[in-house]
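Input/output pair, single chain:
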Amino acid sequence: MAKRLFNEFDSVSSKQWKQKIQFDLKGAEYNDTLVWKTNEDILVKPFYHADDLHELPKPSNTKATEWKICQSIFVANTEKSNLKALNSIEKGADSIKFIIPSETVSIEDLLKNIDLNITSIHFELHFLSLNFIKNISTISAKAKIYYHTDIIGNLAKTGNWFNSIKDDFSQFESIVKQTKSFSINLSLYQNAGATITQQLSYALAHANEYLNHIDTSLSNEEKEAIYINFNVSVGSNYFFEIAKLRALRLLWKTLASKYKINTNCHITVTPSIRNKTVYDYNTNMLRTTTECMSAILGGANTIYNLPYDALFHKDNEFGERIARNQLLVLKHESYFDKIDNPTDGAYYIESLTNQLAEKGLELFKDIEKNGGFLKQLKTGTIQRKIKESAAKEQHLFDAGESILLGTNKHANPNDKMKHELEIYPFVKTNQRKTLIEPVIEKRLSETLEQKRLKNEN
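Output:
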C-alpha cells in the first residue's frame, strides 16, 4: 500500500480551495474569469482535486519505458530503402515502418541484414494482397511485425475501395486470419480537423465495423489473438493529447471486451501536420517535440517524429536525423523512458481522460444508432461533421485567436520560401470518380501561406 505523505497537515477540500480563490478574485466571477470551454465542450478549471474523481483510478497497463523510436521509409527503391533502414537503426531507431507502393518489392532484399530479433517492423501497403503478406510472414516468421491493413481507412482517404466492397472485405478477413491483426487510421480524421471527441468516436466506430464483420467468421481462439494497431496523430494541445491516448485505450478495452477479443492495443503516433507551417519552419521542431512528449506520456508504443521540413522538402538525411535525434534526446537525455505510467493519478489528466472517454462513447453510440460508421461515410455525415469542426478551428486561426507563431503571429516579412519548395505543400485536387466524398487533410496555414508565396518578390 502506498504510504501517505504529510499526514500531519489537515486536508483541504476542493470547496475550500474554491472559496479561497473566489476571495482572492475580489468580486470577479469565478466561472467567467478562470473557467474556459474547449472545442470538445469541456470546461477547464483553474485547479483539480481528488474530489473531482468519483473513485481512485486504476493503474494503467502501458509501459512508457518500452516506447520505440520509429523511422518511416517510402520504398521507391528496395536497395536504397534497405540501406536507409540499416543506417537509421545504427543512428538510434529501434523500429522501421516501410511504406510499400506496389507488389514488385522484394521483401527478402528489403529486410536484408536487419536484425529482426531486436527491430520491430511495420508494413503499410498501398494495395491489398494476401499473397504478398503471406510472403512477408514466411520470410520474417519470428519477427515482430505490424501490418497496417485498413480498407475502411483507404475508402475514407481516397473515396474508393481498393477493388470493391465485397472483394476488400473478403481479402481483409483472410489477412486478419493470417496476421492476427488489423489497423485503424485515426490520423486521417485529426489532420482533416476533427475534434478529439470525434477522433475517439470515429476510431471506435471504425473498429466496430471490422469487429462486426469478423465476429462470426473467427473462432474464439482466433478472436482472442487479434491485435489492433491505432495510427494516431497528436496535436499541440499538450494535456488533452495525453488524455486522448489514454481515453482511446479505455474505449478500446470497453469495445473489445464486448466481442471477447484482446483488449490490449498498439498505438503508433506521429505529430499532426495540421499545425505545421512552411514559413518559420524551425518552429515545427518545437511543436513536434511537445507533441512527442504528449505521445510518450499518453502511453504510445511507437513514435515516428515528423521532420521539420517534411512539408516542402523531399526526404533528406538531415531533416530525418534531426527528427530522430529529438526522440533520442527525449528518451536518453530527458529520461522519458524511466517511469511506466508517469501521468497516473494526476487529477487534471485523469479528469480529462474520463470526460473525453465519456463524450467519445456517447458520440459512438449515436453513430451506431444511426446506421454505423460505414453508412455515415457513404451518406457524407462523417465528412460534413469533420468539415464543420475544421471550419470552426480555421475561423479561430484566421481571427488570430488560435496562434501559430511565425505564421499568423510575429511573422517575419523577410522570410522567403518560394525557391525552397521541392514538393507541393498544399491540398492537391485531382478530378476523378469516387464512390464517396474523401476525407481531406488540410493544414490551418495553407491559405495564408499561398497568399504570402504569391506576393513574394
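Strands lie at 36-37, 43-44, 68-74, 95-100, 120-125, 145-147, 181-185, 227-234, 265-271, 302-304. The longest strand covers residues 227-234.
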